[in-house]
Amino acid sequence: MTRVLVTGDTGFVAGQVIDVLLMRGHSVVTTFHYNITDAKKYLIDPAVLGTTSVLDALHQTCPAVRRAALTSSFTAILGPKLPVTGAKKTYTEADWSPLTMEDTYSNPGLAYAASKVFAEKAAWDFITDKKPDFSLTTICPPMVYGPVKYLMKSLNSVNTSNQLLADIINGKHQSGLPPAQLPLWVDVRGVVLAHVKAVETEEAADKRIFVTSGYYSNQELYGILN
Is 149 within 8 Å of 81 (Cβ atoms)? Predict the structure, then answer.
């Protein structure tokens, strides 16, 4: 039985990763986090330190660890400054979002995307510089949809992607749907399996993995819910 540390265990993806790991016979250790209220102070600035601190702790105190999986985002590959170019563009591990810290100063809404870029780059720099005994795999999903496993106290605690579904059901977009921020999606269960296989499969070591189910539009979501 393998022991696996999962951070952010109350999150949409992490909570389901824990379920699958347990079902596959692994022992799971979790951490907890606080709700973020100030994106600049609590999201951007700690992103790099939070990621590298976990990796450094594994490197310094856990010599038995062999694999690490980091939840990144497709925004770390594409970024909101570039258009989705369709099937003519093949994205690879060499593609990175061009977002800078200066972009977040002029547009605070880019803070989450920028934090993913900085955190993932810092993780790979750590692997290159420190050369730990464990390998790293990063999972870069686009918009994640699917069933919610954790108990929600109210609809206010719905994760970002499922919030749109809740808004449609509650009639908040009767005057018109907003365009999809990122017209690519993936089932949360596929993202979960990617994380689990990243720590189970040796061939996944040192790779950036982009998991996706394809293109979508908010109008398609509306049609399904309707």
Answer: no
- DSSP 3-state of 110: helix
Residue 17 to residue 152: CA distance in whole angstroms: 17
Q: Which one is predicted more confidently, 99 or 109?
A: 99
Beta strand spans in the chain (E): 3-6, 27-30, 67-71, 135-139, 143-145, 184-187, 207-209, 214-215
All residues at 6 or more sequence positions from 37 whose CB lies less than 8 Å from its CB, including other chains: none
pTM score of the predicted model: 0.77
Confidence (pLDDT) at 55: 96
pLDDT tens for each residue of 17-33: 665 665 576 666 544 44
Q: Is 140 left (phi over 0), alpha (psi -120 to 50) or beta?
A: beta
Rounded to whole angstroms, what are the CA distances from 193 to 29, 132, 158? 18, 25, 22
Class for domain 3-225, per CATH?
A: alpha beta
Q: Which residues of 191-205 are buried (b: 16+ CB within 10 A; e: fewer)?
A: bbbbbbbbbbeeebe
CA proximity to 137, closest of 210, 49, 68, 63: 68
Spans of all domains in the chain:
3-225
* Lookup result for tokens 């601190």: 53
pLDDT of residue 111: 79
Which ranges of 131-208 does DSSP label H, i.e. alpha helix?
160-169, 188-200
Q: Which residue has the tokens 């709700």?
A: 35
